[in-house]
Amino acid sequence: MPAQLDVLRGTLDLLILKALSWGSAHGYSVAEWIERVTDDTLVIEEGSLYPALHRLEERGLIEAEWGLSGNNRRAKYYALTGAGRQALKAESATWTRYARAVFAALEAPASLKPASV
Amino acid sequence: MSSRKEPLWRRYLRFFGPDIEADVEDELRFHLDMRERSFLARGLSADEARKAAERRFGDFDRHRRTLKRQDGRRFRRNLWSERVGEWVQDLRYAVRMLWHHRVFSVAVIATLALGIGATTAIFSAVDAALLRPLPFLEPERLVELRRVELPFAPRGQAEQPDARPTIRTVGALTNVYSDVAAYAVGGLNLSGIGAPLRIKVGVVTEGFFRTLGAPVSQGRTFTPEEGRPNGLPVTVISHGLWQRQFGGQAAVGQSVRLNGKAYQVVGIMAPGFRFPEDADLWIPLTVPLTFASFEPFRGWIPIVSIARLAPEMSREVAADRLRGLWRALPAEQLKDYAGVVAEPVRPLQGTLVGDRRTPMLILLGATGLLLLIACVNATNLLLAHAAMRERELAVRTVLGASRGRLIRQLLVQSLVLSLAGAALGLLLAYATLGLVGGLLPREMTELAAPALDGRLLAFAIGLAVATGLGFGVLPALGAAKADAQSVMKSGGGHGSTAARRGRTRRVLVTAELALALMLLAGSGLMLRSFSAVLATDPGFMPERVATLQMTLDRTSYPRSGARLAMLQRLLDRLRGVPGVEAAGVINDLPMSGVAGISIEVDPEDGNLAARFQDRAARYLKSDAGYFRTMGIHLLQGRLMAPSDDSLAPAVMVVSARMAQEVWPGQNPLGKRIKLLDPDTVGWRSVIGVVSDVREKPDEDARWQMYYPITEDSPNLVAVVVRGTLPERELLATLRNAVQAVDPSQPIYAVRTLAELRHASLTTRRSNTTLITAFGALALLLAVVGVYGVMAYGVTLRTREMGIRAALGAGRADLVRLVLGEGMWVAVIGVGIGLIGTLALSRLLQSLLYGVGPSDPVAIAGAALVLLLPVVGATLIPARRAARLDPVDVMRSE
């Protein structure tokens, strides 16, 4: 098993939005998707997914509806709203730029070392 | 599979909105179950799978708590904003509807504005006088000590023993009364700074300011030394006087002249303090009282004694202790004070409001009736309006609007109307504050003038909400009850609902007429009283007489001789002016609002004495010219002559009523009288009898005794002059004559006798005006109400009328039909109103003069004044009904 990383604050919201961009899903399948696509690298305490979901719902980025799951159980399904789609776009662009910048810094050649005073 | 146990009933909660707790539980449990199944699928044992799922989930309880809190908050917020949203929607809808039906809205708003405005205006006076505490420190602890006097030390003598309580003996009860004081209001000439000025002076004991808890803004108040006879002459001035006379410059330590005598200013009161009345300056009232304190008065000091109750002391206990002092009097003397012993102290506020309390409450009651009428009228208009909108409401019901929502919308609409009415009413009230201020005693207008403040605003809004709900609820319920189906079918406005509403409206109009009659009858009684007062013979001829008053101060005119010489020069000068017919002088003018002095008399005949023990005679000092100028007739004997001076035998002229009642059937000339006042000695004989003069326009003439002014001239005198000159010139002549005789002499109250009489009627006039105005408004509203109902009734019965006309009913028949219906309403309304009037008019008793509370002329007049316009208001729709063309009517159906 590869080393596990805690999910950064704020990143979870982005992951949830991304997870829902494929269509509506309940909380468990969101958790499963994150687990799957990150190869278990990112560990989320699954319980903390729900306050995040409800917060996003409150902010109007996602909307919830009760439905029946595959095994005929009552489950709450979440789906992106228009605002959520916008937010996903903006957030992922920001995040990518940020990650690239940090990565560029870490991969910088020795010739670019800080000037000595 | 599900490990969750949920009581079945919880599911039913969802009928009342989402069940947050259950939803959170469901969502999280679902997750745990799914995870558990995925571990089971990987081959874990059931127990391990459950544990692993729980581990993976984290702290289940904590997450559940967080979610419940979060969702609960959101739910409540949503609910709230949803409700507010609905209200805003209703409000918008109401405003839109009212704007659409502008004529209707304006009618309702104007009606309510009249009712609310009048009630608010009168309430402002009641609030200022009766409800708001006096603006003194802990005013609930301030009481009046009834009939408690100052100890008295006559000229050059020691203090007189007095068995009655005095402020000194009451003041000794320190555990009951923490401070006691006495005050009186008089007038003095202020000079030494700026132009000479007549000012109102509070003559107050040393503890006065302490008792009231009134602070100085500069300097100090009086010291105990200054509060004793022969203390240094010092004065405390009002903030306003300081600003006006000293221009706000240093004043403490300066000296001013009061009636020519120098007083040192030792303090300036805080802004706004003018008590008692609207005093501008205070000087010490000495304990014991001496004649030196009489300077600002007319031979009698109207002293009021007050006290501050000790902390935690109840008024009952305090009264009891004071009663103890009264009971120490010998029985013979005590019986004169029965009333005082029953209630030895009363709240200061009550003392200040005095007999103005009743008129204020009566006026408030009158406005209450007016407001009721306005409400009834608004209800009627609303009902008519609801009929117009019946179809619209029915459509909305069919489209799914709930009955509750419809009622709410209609109520919101009536609230919008009543609040708009209140806003307009407040403007009306604000415009009439000056008029209302006249209802208050002067203390009140100075201390706590009625103002458009938060309290009044709250009152008006409260009234608006109450009336809005009151007049709105009936139409709202009625409208919501309407059967949508029948309305839709009938095309609206002709169904049984309409008929029921018509009945309701007739009942309302009947009530309105009854209320209006009560107000009109009240107006009638007040007007009849006013004309009765105007018709009274004052006992003098007020036309073409000018008067002024002046104080001949002791510095310029130390002796009676000097004063008499001055007056003689003045009168001679006046009589020399062409166009002047007569001139005279007296100490007190009638109807000038001055209580003056009355003294008990003991006529010579000892047998009569007992009968007249509690009768008092007015004691006046005048010359013969006074009677000629005033047109008071000499009925018997002679008037005083210049030779009746201090050396001549003591004589007097008495009024006809006094002569008749003291010596019935005898010749009063030569009869003698002795005053019961121990200070005066010797007998005085009657030389003449003159006609009676009323002291107040609505009070019978009292006994009057006129002494020759030439015996001993008072300091305060009123000069009267009658002439053929125009009023203005007559006044100028009088003013100029004083100026010519003594240029430095201040004069005041320069006015005609007619003005004086007019002024004496101010309170009665404003009471009468207000009640009459309310009656007129009530009449207007009632007539509008009747017209509305009758006109609507005719519209409603257009079809019936058409049929009747087609079947051969003549115009006269149709007019009679409508008119008859209107008359029924009017007659029943007036009948009920008459019963109400007879039941309530006794409350007016204290304001009436010369008429009884069930005066048939006033009441029948009111009924007539109400009925005639009501007939008129019924005739208009009746004639319209008669003009209906049956063919048109049928075709329009």
How would you explain this protein's 3D organization?
The complex is a heterodimer of chains A (about 120) and B (about 900). With about 120 residues, chain A is α+β, with helices and mostly antiparallel strands. Chain A has a single domain (about 5-105), classed as Winged helix-like DNA-binding domain superfamily/Winged helix DNA-binding domain (Arc Repressor Mutant, subunit A). Chain A contains 4 helices and 5 strands; from the N terminus they run E-H-E-H-E-H-E-E-H. In chain A, the strands form 2 sheets. Chain A has a 3-stranded antiparallel β-sheet. Chain A has a two-stranded parallel sheet with strand order 1-3. In chain A, strand 4 (about 60-70) and strand 5 (about 75-80) form a beta hairpin. In chain A, helix 1 (about 10-20) crosses helix 2. The longest helix of chain A has 25 residues, at about 80-105. The N and C termini of chain A lie far apart (about 45 Å). The radius of gyration of chain B is 39 Å and the shape is globular. In chain B, a hairpin with a 2-residue loop joins strand 6 (about 255-260) and strand 7. Among the domains of chain B are: about 10-90, no CATH class; about 145-345, no CATH class; about 555-745, no CATH class. The interface between A and B is medium-sized, with 20 and 23 residues.
Keywords:
heterodimer; A: alpha+beta; Arc Repressor Mutant, subunit A; two-stranded parallel ribbon; 4 helices; 5 strands; 48% helix; B: 893 residues; alpha+beta; six-stranded mixed β-barrel; six-stranded mixed beta barrel; 21 strands; 53% helix
